[in-house]
TrEMBL record:
Enzyme class (EC, first level): transferase
Gene this protein is translated from: aroA
Entry protein name: 3-phosphoshikimate 1-carboxyvinyltransferase
Binding site for 3-phosphoshikimate: K36, S37, R41, S181, Q183, D334, K361
Chain sites annotated for binding phosphoenolpyruvate: K36, G108, R136, Q183, R365, R408
Organism: Arsenicitalea aurantiaca
Broad class of the protein's primary localization: cytoplasm
Location of the protein in the cell: Cytoplasm
InterPro entries: Enolpyruvate_Tfrase_dom, Enolpyruvate_Tfrase_sf, EPSP_synthase, EPSP_synthase_CS, RNA3'P_cycl/enolpyr_Trfase_a/b
Length: 455
């Protein structure tokens, strides 16, 4: 039994370059780890609930473990027993003043949701992270928190390190989320839990709905109205008693994206990715790859923990370029880097629009993807909010890719190297542990050729 979500932060270790080489067909079955969004929320909501929450299938990635350590610092008890995680929560309003800064490592979701979770408490909480997280914009969450009355005691041009002190009397607000962001929506809803009265979030463009669904499951009073134009009005009542739950975390579709694209582009592949979350706010990549001609079969659909899950059967396919509808972006926002890799192996032009949010992820993903494609002989155009990839059915490869502390850039270009004419190298694979620690051995077991290179 391990009693704490330990493991050292990946950014504390030195970079580990890795090379991917052309592989024979990828074959077999693979189970991807638990969904990262749901895993963060399982730790957080368990920490706020009364009683013992038991979580099965939690993603034991660095991002989520950092959230677990933060919940412990706020007073929750977290233990791993066998394969399940047990969280004893403190009740809404019950967090204790942390004795040191909360370190969220590389995780935007962890830090932005936690600022809502404990930023309203009448004590000072300090939030820190790695170099990537410290460069990401936090004004998007500080704005609504300031409106609630939270004092921003310390900030670095609205970036980390940030220290917050909650007001004696926090005010319920009505907040229209200005960008498509589940993290901002969730920050405000979580703050609303400790504010007497009704907090309202207006979401003009729907984003992943895990906070709403899981809060309802933990017993919060949350009402959602959808207007004719798709705008969602989400109202949460303050000071509920949240009750501990049994949570089963489905497989992460954002991690499944890598073996799925690998299966499509590596000739001779025929593989099944098991237990993948099919929530429609997360399946934009599957729709897009199918439109490109990908042979993707969704089989064995079933329900698990209030969500639909399924297995995804993928075969090597001849792909064609498509225009991805702008409104699909929120349902595949983390999947554009690996879609760009699929597009490089397609015939014709793939146009991806509405990508402004990619510039404020773990790296500027729009620029990082464009540079990585160019380094491997792929013709592309990077615009402010668009990426156009001109595929020729094959990729020369041979490039060295800079990953900028970004797990999805590392995994995307390692997938590229499995099918390109010459190997593809990435400068660092350590960040893969933030979201998909089993990526290298898991794809390796299907036949992927990865080799460690010296730093
Ligand atoms: O709420 C979440 O769990 C997430 C929301 C998305 O971020 P944004 O809210 O910044 O779009 C996504 O990119 C991230 O990986 C997880
Ligand atoms: C954007 C991501 O995560 P986060 O914002 O939590 O760092 C991601 O996992 O691709």
């Amino acid at each position: 039994m391990s009693s704490a979500p330990t493991a050292s932060a990946p950014h504390a270790t030195s970079p580990r370059p890795m090379t991917a080489s052309r592989s024979d067909g990828l074959r077999g079955r693979m189970r991807v780890p638990g969904d990262k969004s749901i895993s963060h929320r399982a730790f957080m909501f368990g920490a706020m609930a009364v009683g013992e929450t038991v979580v099965e299938g939690l993603l034991e990635g660095e991002d989520v473990l950092a959230t677990g350590r933060a919940m412990q610092a706020l007073g929750a008890t977290i233990e791993k027993r066998g394969e399940s995680w047990h969280i004893n929560g403190l009740g809404v309003g019950g967090f204790l003043e942390p004795q040191g800064p909360l370190d969220f490592g590389n995780a935007g979701t962890g830090v932005r949701l936690a600022m809502g979770l404990c930023g309203t408490y009448d004590f000072v909480t300090r939030f820190v992270g790695d170099a990537s997280l410290s460069a990401r914009p936090m004004k998007r969450v500080l704005d609504p928190l300031r409106a609630i009355g939270v004092e921003v005691v310390e900030h670095n041009d609205n970036r980390l390190p940030i220290a917050l002190r909650g007001p004696r009397t926090p005010l319920p607000i009505e907040y229209r989320v200005p960008m498509a962001s589940a993290q901002v929506k969730s920050c405000v809803l979580l703050a609303g839990l400790v504010i007497p009265g009704t907090t309202t979030v207006i979401e003009p463009i729907m984003t992943r709905d895990h906070t709403e669904k899981m809060l309802a499951g933990f017993g919060a009073d949350i009402q959602i109205t959808t207007e004719a134009d798709g705008t969602r009005i989400i109202e949460v009542s303050g000071l509920p008693e949240l009750k501990a739950q049994a949570v089963t975390v489905p497989g992460d579709p954002s991690s499944a994206a890598f073996p799925i694209v690998a299966g499509l582009i590596v000739p001779g592949s025929d593989l099944i990715v098991e237990n993948v979350l099919m929530n429609p706010t997360r399946t934009g990549l599957l729709t897009t790859l199918s439109e490109m001609g990908g042979q993707i079969e969704i089989i064995n659909r079933r329900l698990s923990g209030g969500e639909e899950i399924a297995d995804v059967h993928v075969r090597h396919s001849a792909l064609s370029g498509v225009t991805v509808p702008a409104e699909r972006a929120p349902s595949m926002i983390d999947e554009y880097p690996v879609l760009a890799v699929a597009a490089a192996f397609a015939e014709g032009e793939t146009v991806m629009e509405n990508l402004g949010e990619l510039r404020v992820k773990e790296s500027d993903r729009l620029a990082a993807v464009a540079r990585g494609l160019e380094a491997n002989g792929v013709d592309c155009t990077e615009e402010e909010e668009r990426l156009i990839v001109r595929g020729r059915g094959a990729v020369p490869g041979g490039g060295q890719v800079a990953t900028h502390l970004d797990h999805r850039i590392a995994m995307s270009f390692l997938v590229m190297g499995l099918a390109s004419d010459r190997p593809v190298s990435v400068d660092d694979r350590t960040m893969i542990a933030t979201s998909f620690p089993q990526f290298v051995p898991g794809l390796g077991a299907l036949g992927a050729r990865f080799t460690e290179a010296d730093a």
